[in-house]
Amino acid sequence: KNQVEQSPQSLIILEGKNCTLQCNYTVSPFSNLRWYKQDTGRGPVSLTIMTFSENTKSNGRYTATLDADTKQSSLHITASQLSDSASYICVVSLRMKTSYDKVIFGPGTSLSVIP
Amino acid sequence: DTGVSQNPRHKITKRGQNVTFRCDPISEHNRLYWYRQTLGQGPEFLTYFQNEAQLEKSRLLSDRFSAERPKGSFSTLEIQRTEQGDSAMYLCASSLALDGQDSNQPQHFGDGTRLSIL
Fold it and tell me: Which residues contact A26 (CB under 8 A, 6 or more apart)?
């Protein structure tokens, strides 16, 4: 079964600290993996996208890694800010025979950054 | 603002009523998606359009749900005879498919319509 799991479910960190969020997937055939940030009451916003051949991608203080062999990804947030408080969703796309890649969303990790 | 726009932002209605949501995608995007999201969960795929054609529907999309994209621009999602279980956030997203593939093109999401069934 194609699934995307994320850990931890929720996380509380102090402002200025670093943190790492995990994503494990059982998706085949793999097309790409994205991380989205979703603020409360808002739609998700894309942070990074990685294909099979990419193992790291950075976007400012966000760095995503991908190990396609173990089917694991992580999102590292450096020097956290209060505005980083949000849900972080891992999204994996399956390569379909049609032109549409099926997209599977993880349940998200809820991050709270406190002063 | 040239992002994805959804209306209304909130909808409260009584069980059994019909509701309709509207999504205006980014103008040059040819693909449009509808998702449903419940509290603490990631979005679940409902359906998607390539221009005006509805190409895929999830099993979640019961016969009470219907989506249209009549001119390949905006889209509507209608729920008939609403039930308590329909309470959720309904998200719309759009993307630009190049050469028939959109796998590396991010989906741009609207801020959703939150539906509450009394």
Answer: A1, A2, A3, A71
Burial A42-64 (b: 16+ CB within 10 A, else e): bbbebbbbbeeeeeebeeeebbb
Contact B47, B33 (CB under 8 A): yes
Set of chain B residues whose Cβ sits within 8 Å of the Cβ of A86: none
Please state the separation of Cα B88 from the chain's center in Å.
Answer: 12
Encoded tokens for A49: 């996208």
Q: What is the pLDDT of residues B84-116, one digit of tens each?
A: 999 999 999 999 877 655 556 788 999 999 999
Interface test with B, best of A59, A91, A103 (most B CBs within 10 A): A103
